[in-house]
Amino acid sequence: MSDLTLAQAVDNLWGMKSEILKATWETCIMMGISVPVSVFFGTLLGIGMFATGNHMLFYNRTANKVLDNVINLIRAFPFVILMVAMGPLTLLVIGKSIGPYAASLILSVSGMFYFARLVEQNLREVPRGIIEAATSMGASPTAIIFKVLLSEARSGMVLSITVLSIGILSYSAAAGMIGGGGLGDLAVRYGYHRFQTDMMVFIVAVLVLAVIVIQSLGNLIARKLDKR
Fold it and tell me: Which residues cross the membrane (predicted)?
């Protein structure tokens, strides 16, 4: 970058606008698929962990232990190793083991188990007195979970979704290193292998801006939902 003027760097980036737009779209595909999928299935897993815990609504020690061990196992995998290990599965399900859609499947698997733990923690932060009050009024366990607990924990849930989104954005950049596409792939191919520092700096700036926007939006929504 020191050998380039700002104008030259802008010209270089403008000349690659089609590549940049394609990579940005691939990153949006990965985020657009994996975040909702992770939130949906991760919420169910987190509820299962919480509800089957000690003295909870559906106490089941065996089920709780199995869920806990599975979540810990998947979360222990470094993301790049998980991508390689899941290659055959993505080939079977998606029809290919590279590209943004294949990466989305792996991001979803990694994200849902990560989010499950966040959901469990959010539900545990709800005062137990609220559960007891709802039970005394005759509310069913299912109603308590979906109408009371999730409502009380909604501010924390929004912040957890924010953390998840930023984590998946980071993982999507790492996915580019082994064929996932997106901005990470562009940074590696041009910024690293071809020593185009201007491209590397630009992509880092885009990712930093995306993180700031996601975090700011999450904080804003969480504040509005916080009833305390």
Answer: 29-52, 73-95, 101-119, 157-179, 199-222
Query: Token pair of 157, please?
Result: 């849930």
The sign of the dihedral angle between the CA atoms of 145, 148, 152, 154 is positive
pLDDT tens-digit readout, 183-224? 888 888 887 777 778 888 888 899 999 999 999 999 999 998
Three-state DSSP class for residue 134: helix
**Tokens linked to 225:** 């939902």
Q: How far is CA 97 from CA 74, 166, 178, in A?
A: 19, 24, 10
Q: pTM (2 decimals)?
A: 0.87
DSSP single-letter state for residue 178: G
Q: Distance (Å, rounded) from C-alpha 203 to C-alpha 198?
A: 9
Domains of the chain: 6-225 (1.10.3720.10)
Q: Do residues 30 and 103 touch, judged by C-beta distance below 8 A?
A: yes
Q: How far apart are CA 125 and CA 20, in angstroms?
A: 42
